[in-house]
From TrEMBL:
Belongs to the methyltransferase superfamily. RNA methyltransferase RsmG family. NCBIfam families: rsmG_gidB (TIGR00138). It is an enzyme of class 2 (transferase). Pfam families: GidB (PF02527). It is found in: Cytoplasm. One of its GO terms (molecular function) is rRNA (guanine-N7-)-methyltransferase activity. This is Ribosomal RNA small subunit methyltransferase G. HAMAP family: 16SrRNA_methyltr_G (MF_00074). The keyword DNA damage does not apply. S-adenosyl-L-methionine binds at G73, L78, A123, E124, R141. Its EC number is 2.1.1.-.
Length: 224
């Protein structure tokens, strides 16, 4: 498939509204440079919209208005860039450790005029956690198994906020396998949700993990 064949499906307008031209420009950038820069695989061109752009943007269904969002391991800008396009009300941080991908993200943000901030670093790094701070929502797509993801990402989530982990068909098994590790990392009960059922042939599978308040210490002072 050539670059000129990567056209938006009719449903894209329902997701991006009057900002569809920005999404189309992002799709063009990925089609033009994504393979050579190691951002997407060579077989991804024919599914840029359904598998990547729309798949990412629809998670906005589970994000409140006007909150801060950190996209951990943003890579090619997924899901952070489509989310920033579809939801300009959000304050989005694109967190990525690899320099060449940080360069790409800065180019995308500048080209599309997005109000997103690009930070180089890893979520598990204490210095990065201090710089990024805590936000209402943290997103991650194809970054790590749920146990590790919770350990890395939940410290960036405010109490009462959520980690939204985009997952595949094994999401239910991951929840069962890793729920104890999630609890130890400060997460509440993981919930499997499907996003974009009205616009996607295959809805986006997301594991939503609430950030709960730390449990009070059970240690008691010695009686006098």
């Amino acid at each position: 498939m050539g670059v000129d064949e990567v056209t938006a499906p009719a449903t894209a307008a329902r997701v991006f509204g009057d900002r569809l031209p920005l999404a189309e420009r992002f799709a063009d950038m990925l089609a033009e440079h994504g393979i050579e820069r190691g951002l997407i695989g060579p077989r991804e061109l024919d599914r840029l919209w359904d598998r990547h752009l729309l798949n990412s943007a629809v998670i906005g269904e589970h994000i409140p208005d006007g909150v801060g969002v950190v996209d951990v391991g943003s890579g090619a800008g997924l899901p952070g860039v489509p989310l920033a396009i579809a939801r300009p009300d959000l304050d989005i941080v694109l967190l990525e450790p690899m320099a060449r991908r940080v360069d790409w993200l800065n180019e995308v943000v500048a080209e599309l005029g997005l109000s997103a901030t690009v930070i180089r670093g890893r979520a598990e790094d204490g210095v990065v956690r201090t710089e990024v701070g805590q936000h209402e929502v943290v997103t991650a797509r194809a970054v790590a198994p749920l146990a590790r993801l919770a350990t890395w990402c939940l410290p960036l989530v405010r109490t009462g906020g959520s980690l939204l982990a985009l997952k595949g068909s094994s999401a239910a098994e991951e929840i069962e396998r890793d729920k104890l590790a999630v609890s130890r990392a400060g997460g509440g009960e993981p919930v499997l949700v499907r996003c974009g059922e009205a616009v996607l042939e295959t809805p986006t599978v997301v594991v939503r993990i609430p950030r709960v308040a730390p449990k009070p210490s059970r240690r008691r002072g010695r009686k006098q």
